[in-house]
């Protein structure tokens, strides 16, 4: 059974994309998604909105195991190509409880094309402010940040990811309808 | 499956007004469609083969409008040549209802059959008109 997507496919995807740009320009600052589609089984509304916005037939997507309804609906609305393994994917969606693939094994781009790298969409439970201190482009001074439900050694792996700049992966953290951007340029200090 | 192909073809080639009139009572009786995709218009490349067997070539781009909806458990798709959004949505609704075993037999006789009849009549009339204008060319045998 297929599920409906955005009410106004073009306008809603454009607004979502705009808020995604803002989130990546001001890392670790929370922003609310402006348009939410009806929920898909197994996915939060925010993840569904981002997938409808970002995915088309030209990129490959890695998904954890999801109900058939959800896969069929995503295929219908986006024309997605599923990647066989995380290392080949342009986008990866990690739902709560999905183990984190080692960040160093994902597409990191090349020196000539650092943009040909993977983007992670990570569902978390909630945002807080007491895990890490972030700094870097888009952050005046420093910004306190935290996320409940992140895989254990995520921040540790992130420091290695940041050290590979200009190569590396970017991440977007999603808690229902709120998102925070985490580009590879953001320095993370734990504690 | 062949029947679905046939009814989609009949629905797409029938005038939207006739389809709307015939479908109206059904739309009142059945639950409202959940729209998966409202009508949207795009371009499709038509390909042809000379004589039906030659190499494939691009003939032209045509505009096509499509829409999809769900009624109960059934998903209906409507595709129509041109840019008539309402027509595509009517086909999607009719397609979803036609796939429902509770309505199928009745709809095939009350909706598809009359449209098919009108379509056949129109095609026969066009064929007659074309046949009437047929010109036979004779070449005189060059005499010695």
From TrEMBL, chain A:
<protein>
    <submittedName>
        <fullName>Alpha-D-ribose 1-methylphosphonate 5-triphosphate synthase subunit PhnH</fullName>
    </submittedName>
</protein>
<dbReference type="Pfam" id="PF05845">
    <property type="entry name" value="PhnH"/>
</dbReference>
<dbReference type="InterPro" id="IPR008772">
    <property type="entry name" value="Phosphonate_metab_PhnH"/>
</dbReference>
<dbReference type="InterPro" id="IPR038058">
    <property type="entry name" value="PhnH-like_sp"/>
</dbReference>
<dbReference type="GO" id="GO:0019634">
    <property type="term" value="P:organic phosphonate metabolic process"/>
</dbReference>
TrEMBL record, chain B:
<dbReference type="GO" id="GO:0019634">
    <property type="term" value="P:organic phosphonate metabolic process"/>
</dbReference>
<dbReference type="GO" id="GO:0015716">
    <property type="term" value="P:organic phosphonate transport"/>
</dbReference>
<protein>
    <submittedName>
        <fullName>Alpha-D-ribose 1-methylphosphonate 5-triphosphate synthase subunit PhnG</fullName>
    </submittedName>
</protein>
<dbReference type="InterPro" id="IPR009609">
    <property type="entry name" value="Phosphonate_metab_PhnG"/>
</dbReference>
<dbReference type="Pfam" id="PF06754">
    <property type="entry name" value="PhnG"/>
</dbReference>
